[in-house]
Amino acid sequence: MDESLELPNAHARPLADSVQEDNEQSSDEEDGGLDWTKLLPAALRPVIPKRGEKEYEPRMAGGSNLQVHVLERSRAAMFETLKATRTTSSKVISYGIWYPDLSRVEATVARGIHFPSMGHSAPRSVMDEDGVEHLQKRLELLPEEAIYLIERGTMFCWKELGIRLEGLGGVPMTVQQAYSEMIGKEDLTLEKFQVYSYLKRLGYVVTRTRPPSEHYPIAAPFPLNTPHTSILGHLRRFIEGLAASLVGVFNRFDWWHPLRINRICLSNKTYGSLYRSIRFIHSGHSVPLNSSGPPPPSSPYQIFYNLYKPSTPFKKSNPPPPDFQIVVVNARTTPMPTLQELSDLFGVLPELPPPLPRQKRPANNAQEQSKPDEPAKAASPAPSPTTAEQSFLRRLFPWAFPTPLQATKEQKVNPFMALKAGKKMIIIAAVDSGNISFFRFSEGAFCEWPMA
């Protein structure tokens, strides 16, 4: 609280001080607490308030009457705002039935924008009016998906009572009942649901890594970074290997000459290969770890969620390879991952391509735009008979004509950026009493760069 409000005097403050104070108050509105008084009278639906300045500074001897009045007025405005009725349009309300024995929610009526990336189809046996059982596909939700929709107020869910009624009667499940019924089903913990809910609110598409049932869609495998090699390429490798073996015979007599001869024979004997040959300590992640103790118990560091960016074209029945994979742990009960646990995680992850260097814009780009349009180039000449014959042979024997690479300027990879990004990456979400922290662990390869 400003001292001038408690101890008034007759001295007028200069105009510069008042302007400076207004600027400080405007800057404090962004860094202070919530100003609930600006929300009176309360609207029909809650509105996120703007951050305002602090009501007062705490004092050792207690606050003044003005401080107590401002605090009580702000507290009353907060209660009035929180008492506002939460409304949702009936056009986006979905309806579902919770089956405890299946740990699934059947979406009888699916509405809204969430279902293109949530839920999966599963055949279940139902009984018709004549008492005959038959399979019928229906849309089912996992426990975390159902709790997320119930908590948002976009789904009314009823618990299955053992009999199938014509209509949905009774009172739907509350949020507290949904938490108590669904948390703990299908390996779902409170920490995993908090991570799921947080990522869904950010716009990501979140799915399970390990399918909980045979009907749950599995993400496509990661593409292998193996270049396509034609028959001519295999033949070239064979000739190079034969030449290297012949050169190795001459290397037995005089081992100084290969440094000069191998440049002609296309061998792999260079100074780098010589230094690697005398290395007596294995390097790289291909060497397995030496585990002398007993096998560890089941580790909590298991991949649980697949994460897709909001811009990823996602098909629910055939999901693409995930952009990220997330491990969820409880920070209060789980220690830091060991080297063996990280190695096990990296063992199931694909290798990422090195990051591309930044593209530098040419300095004369603006000058080229200011130039007038040049006349159109002359039309390309008609294809010759030889070219037509080559295209015909290419269609008949595509294996003999490998696709030529486009003549593009090769850009060198920045080794520091590649070492920072790593070859493999995993994200660990540590939840500490509701506070979620994301940690990225990467597997680098220092021995693969010339500087190593």
What does this structure look like?
The protein is extended and about 90 Å long. The chain starts with a helix and ends in a 9-residue tail after the last strand. 31% of the residues lie in helices and 15% in strands. By secondary structure, the chain is an alpha+beta fold. The protein has helices spanning 3-6, 15-31, 65-82, 143-152, 175-182, 190-201, 231-251, 258-265, 271-277, 339-347, 365-370, 385-396, 415-421, and strands spanning 94-99, 104-109, 120-127, 133-141, 155-159, 205-208, 303-308, 324-330, 424-432, 435-443. Among the domains are: 3-82, no CATH class; 90-188, MutS, DNA mismatch repair protein, domain I (3-Layer(aba) Sandwich); 231-277, no CATH class. The strands form 2 sheets. It has a 5-stranded mixed beta sheet, with helices on one face. Strands 6-7-8-9-10 form a 5-stranded mixed beta sheet, sandwiched between helices. The protein has 13 helices and 10 strands. The model is unreliable at 1-6, 27-31, 253-266 and 374-379 (pLDDT under 50).
